[in-house]
Structures are given as C-alpha cells and as structure tokens.
Give the backbone structure.
Amino acid sequence: MQSRGSQSSGSRPLDITFVCGRRPDLLGKTLASLTRQITAHFSVGTVHANIDPFCGSPADGDKCEALLRDTFPKVQVRRPGEASFGAAVKWLWQQPATDLFLHMEDDWEILHPIAPDDVLPRFVGAVTQVQLASRDRLYLPKTYSFKASWRKTFGLKLFKKVHLDEPLFATSPSFLVSNFARVCAEMMDPGKDPEKQLFAPGTPLREFTRDYRNHPLQAPGRQAVVRDLGRDWLSDRRIRKRIQNGISIWEKL
C-alpha cells in the first residue's frame, strides 16, 4: 500500500471500534501494528471499545483499558458484566459519529501500511464495507465478496459457483459506512453471533444487506493485509469456539 497523498486525505476523521477480551498481550501486539500501519496515516476521532470479561482477570481488563487510553487521545470504554460478542458488535456499530469507521478486534496484526487513498476510493456505488483480507490470493480475483458453492471431486474441494445475489459482510477488521453499520446493528440480536446473522437467509437483516457490497482489500501482489493472532492464542490454551443455535460458545478442551 502507498501512503503518498495521505496527509491531505488523513485530515478526514475516522472513528475506530474495538472488540476486546481481557487479553492485554494480544491487544498490545494489535495496537502496535495498527498505529504503525494505519492510524499513522489517518486523523483518528473517537475510539469506542467494548472489553468483555472473556479470558483473563479484572486486572487484565484494566490493563487493556490502559493500553487503549495510552494509545489514543479520545476513548470510550464499555465493560459489561457478561461476555457477549453479539452485544459487543451491536453496541459498537451504533457508536461512530464519523461517516466511515474502522472496526477492529483485539487479535489481528496489520501486515501492510494502509492510507486513506488506499481505502476511500473503494467506497463507490453500493460498497459499504472494505474488508482487510486475511488470506493471500483470494480464491477468486474478485471485486466483491459473495457466497460461494464448492464441490468435492476425488477428495479435492473445487470451486463451483458464486451466488451474486448473496453478498457477504464480516465483523473482522474492516472499514465501514457508519449509517450502514448502524442499521445492521439495530437489526442484530445481541444474544447471537453477529457475523452469522449477517449471513442468515430469509431475515430482515439479510434482506437489508442484499443491495450493498463488501470489497476485500489486499496488499500488492494479492497478499493478505491482516493476520489472525487469536487462533493460535486460543489453541495454545485449548479453548475452542463453536456456534450452537446461532450463539457463540467458548469451551475448554
């Protein structure tokens, strides 16, 4: 990504939302990469953070809040009594006051620099989300994210079809149009996994998102922009996430 021209574009303020657990080690790594690769090129508005009582201790939650407040000048923190990924996203996506905002989670490393000129021109037409790609060379050289079908042949998983009437949206690191995210949040059930709700067919939320598009952003050479730090962290502690009746459940193995 190029940062040329970012000084003029960077004057446009950008709010940030953060889904956090009580994992200061992960959050510290994420913040270090975020400030180096993204916020150095943007004018940051308010950082809205939800710190759930997930993993760690209350003291670890305090450390996470301190890390955020030491990194950004204006921070709003919510610390609920119970952990709920759905409730966290629902609250966060209703907070930003800027036209666009950056949605983050506490366990993603930013691998490449991103400047406003890399992002803002992509918000054209029906695009309401620019998702930071987490894989090198996405399975299709695609402009937008849609549901895809696959088939197995001799044990191999082969691409079959893209469903152009089923756009996909995500809760992983992304830039979003605030008005779009706010309407999505209003329709979300706080007790269920928010990303699964964005995918669920036949719901008012799915009908709303159908007319909009998510544009995946890769680095030059079709490289990933972000890396998931949370999977190894959970695996090392033998913690597994599963979805049961639309609800995220975290269990110790």
Q: What stands out?
A: Residues 1-10 have pLDDT under 50 and may be disordered. DSSP finds nine helices and 13 strands in the chain. The radius of gyration is 18 Å. The first strand starts at residue 13 and ends at 20.
